[in-house]
Structures are given as structure tokens and as C-alpha cells.
């Protein structure tokens, strides 16, 4: 079992509160990612779960057992850090088995666990090597193997891939995802990399200033952000955000901002739209579809291309649609376009996000 229940957790450094009255329930076998910018409290929260720092209030329990003040070695967890922290004079086998040897585990059991972890992580041929003879990805796999031999129900990962290049990060993301499916253990993973979060997580907890802003599936966090912070933090490039207001005309609802007017009647409002309400319209680049010709569609906009960024599989375009609005949008590589040309896009209002400008919460 690997259920983690955090209740009203407070963590302070002197007079500064880093984590504030935080509630979080993590299901057995779940892969939960703590995502947020530097200083948001995600690593602090992970360290508190691991017992490496003390809380100033609230409780942490594993499978119903209060472990708030339990020593890290007695929590039955495996931890993988950003730094590999391998002993340079020890072989891979010795590094992986060090904790078990210190704990006095039988040699035969240690050998079996190391062989099992080495096979799982494709390290069998490297067991006699020293860390200096390994690549960065291999060293990180050794660090993961050192955590796995503890045979824990809960594994904690603190930005384990941030020191690797892009290719290695992609490879190890795949390995960690496979590992989770094989072990079916609870994994809590800290990162500021949204790609890691979206590809690995069962659920993502987006944090800001020690508070969870949204806890949901990757699909919902990306497509239905709870507030403006979540909306703009996820996505590369960031979501287009335009300030304006709602206008009710008969049975239709419009978003208006200067010369920009869009029909948002199909938007799934949680509560009735209010005429004149100040709102922020969020449009991801993929919600603006390139069209060869302008038609009578109310949500068809014509502008002038300012910048073209070929991305390989598609093209990112920045276009100015009036004196106030420059928006980013994606187009397929079949369109050959250049800066200075006119372009028409259609906005998919149903897939956009609308936020209350006063509260920044999703409507």
C-alpha cells in the first residue's frame, strides 16, 4: 500500500511560510507530479513527505499511520534526488547496495535485489564500473536503482532529470513511466518541466506560493486550467490572454476587446454569463486554425504575419490582428507563409478558456 494523506500542512522558514494549510490525498499506486516555478514550495513539500524537514503544523500519514515526526529511514520510502550523489570510489553494485549493507540485510537478499533492479534498469553489464565510467543517464539510473532496492511502497523523485540533456531526459522519462507501470508503486515527482509533468503524471498538482492551484489530470490541467496562473504556466508558447468583457446580444454571448469580437456562445460557462463582466479570454495557439480564405464566420480573423518560427512538425506564427492584439497560432507545414503576408485564422471558442478578470478564476 502507498496511500499518502497530507492534512493542513504548514512549513515555515523563520517568519516565511513556504507551504500553507496544504491538503493533498495521493492514491495507492498513483503517479503524482508536483509542478510549479522555482520557489513555489514543491521540493519543500516533497522533503517534508520524506521526513527531511519538519513541518510547523498539520500532519502526514502513510496508509493511515501518522508519520509526521517519523525518521526518514523508518518511513519505508525510496528517494531519488537531482544530484546523483553516488560514491565515486564504489562500483555500481556497491552504490546500489550500500543502504542495504548498512542496514545489515542478508548478502543473498542484497544480491537478488541488486540483480532485479539492474535488470529492470538495464544496468546488468555496468555493475562493476565506477561512476566516473558512466554517462549522465547511466548515473541517474544507478541513483534510481539505489532507491528501488529498498522495495518501498512510495518513491519520491526531486527533479531527477534536470541535469541531463534533452535526449537523455526523453529517454529516462520513458524509463520512469515504464518503471511505474511495472512496480505499481506510489510515485511523487517534483519538476518545473511541464513536458515531464504532462507525460508522466496520473494527476498534476500545480503549485504557487505554497498553495496548490489545481489538482487534476494532465488533460484537464492543460485544457481546462482553473485560473490564469495555471493557464499561463502550462503551454509553450504560453496561452494568448486578451483582456475584454462579455456582451449579451439576444441569445448569443460575445467577447469584446477593442476591435476584436468573438462569439463565445458555445463556451461551457459554469454559471450564466453577465453582460459587461470584465473577463480574460485565453486561447492556446492550437485553438486558432489557419484558413486560406476569410469567410463570414464570426470567429474568423484576418491579420498580418509578424514572425514565423518553423518547429519541424508544425509552424508557430505570430500575427497582429489589430492595433492592440498580436496572437500566436500554429499551422501545418503544408502552408508556406512569410512575415508581412495577410493570414486568416478561425478561433475555436468552445476550446478556449474564459477567466474572471477580478478573481482570475475560470468561468
TrEMBL record:
ABC transporter domain sequence ranges: 1-234
One Pfam family this sequence matches: ABC_tran
Gene Ontology molecular function terms on file: ABC-type maltose transporter activity; ATP binding; ATP hydrolysis activity
Keyword Transcription regulation: no
PROSITE patterns to which the protein is assigned, alphabetical: ABC_TRANSPORTER_1, ABC_TRANSPORTER_2
Keywords: ATP-binding, Cell membrane, Membrane, Nucleotide-binding, Sugar transport, Transport
InterPro entries recorded: AAA+_ATPase, ABC_transporter-like_ATP-bd, ABC_transporter-like_CS, ABC_transpr_MalK-like, ABC_transpr_MalK/UgpC-like, Mo/tungstate-bd_C_term_dom, NA-bd_OB-fold, P-loop_NTPase
The UniProt record lists the keyword Transport: yes
SUPFAM superfamilies reported in the protein's UniProt record: MOP-like, P-loop containing nucleoside triphosphate hydrolases
PANTHER family, alphabetized: MALTODEXTRIN IMPORT ATP-BINDING PROTEIN MSMX (PTHR43875), MALTOSE_MALTODEXTRIN IMPORT ATP-BINDING PROTEIN MALK (PTHR43875:SF3)
Name by which UniProt lists this protein: ABC transporter ATP-binding protein
GO cellular component, one term: maltose transport complex
Amino acid at each position: 500500500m502507498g496511500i499518502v494523506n497530507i492534512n493542513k500542512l504548514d512549513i515555515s522558514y523563520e517568519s516565511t511560510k513556504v507551504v500553507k494549510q496544504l491538503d493533498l490525498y495521493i492514491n495507492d499506486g498513483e503517479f503524482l507530479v508536483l509542478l510549479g516555478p522555482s520557489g513555489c514550495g514543491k521540493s519543500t513539500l516533497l522533503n517534508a513527505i520524506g521526513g527531511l524537514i519538519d513541518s510547523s503544523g498539520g500532519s502526514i500519514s502513510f496508509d493511515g499511520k501518522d508519520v509526521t515526526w517519523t525518521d526518514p529511514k523508518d518511513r519505508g520510502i525510496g528517494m531519488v534526488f537531482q544530484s546523483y550523489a553516488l560514491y565515486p570510489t564504489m562500483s555500481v553494485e556497491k552504490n546500489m547496495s550500500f543502504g542495504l549493507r548498512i542496514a545489515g540485510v542478508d548478502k543473498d537478499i542484497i544480491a537478488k535485489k541488486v540483480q532485479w533492479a539492474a535488470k529492470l534498469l538495464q544496468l546488468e553489464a555496468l555493475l562493476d564500473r565506477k561512476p566516473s565510467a558512466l554517462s549522465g543517464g547511466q548515473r541517474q539510473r544507478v541513483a534510481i536503482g539505489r532507491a528501488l532496492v529498498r522495495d518501498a511502497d512510495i518513491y519520491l523523485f526531486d527533479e531527477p532529470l534536470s541535469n541531463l540533456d534533452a535526449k537523455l531526459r526523453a529517454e529516462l522519462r520513458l524509463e520512469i513511466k515504464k518503471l511505474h507501470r511495472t512496480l505499481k508503486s506510489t510515485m511523487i515527482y517534483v519538476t518545473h518541466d511541464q513536458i515531464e509533468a504532462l507525460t508522466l503524471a496520473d494527476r498534476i498538482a500545480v503549485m504557487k506560493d505554497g498553495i496548490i492551484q489545481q489538482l487534476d489530470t494532465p488533460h484537464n490541467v492543460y485544457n481546462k486550467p482553473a485560473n490564469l496562473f495555471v493557464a499561463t504556466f502550462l503551454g509553450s508558447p504560453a496561452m494568448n490572454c486578451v483582456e475584454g468583457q462579455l456582451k449579451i446580444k439576444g441569445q448569443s454571448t460575445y467577447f469584446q476587446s477593442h476591435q476584436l469580437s468573438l462569439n463565445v456562445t458555445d463556451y461551457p460557462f459554469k454559471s450564466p454569463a453577465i453582460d459587461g463582466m470584465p473577463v480574460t479570454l485565453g486561447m492556446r495557439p492550437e485553438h486558432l486554425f489557419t484558413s486560406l480564405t476569410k469567410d463570414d464566420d464570426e470567429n474568423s480573423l484576418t491579420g498580418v504575419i509578424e514572425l514565423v518560427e518553423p518547429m519541424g512538425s508544425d509552424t508557430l506564427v505570430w500575427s497582429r490582428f489589430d492595433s492592440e492584439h498580436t496572437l500566436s497560432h500554429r499551422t501545418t507545414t503544408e502552408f508556406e507563409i512569410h512575415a508581412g503576408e495577410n493570414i486568416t485564422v478561425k478561433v475555436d471558442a468552445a476550446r478556449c478558456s474564459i477567466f474572471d478578470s477580478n478573481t482570475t478564476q475560470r468561468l
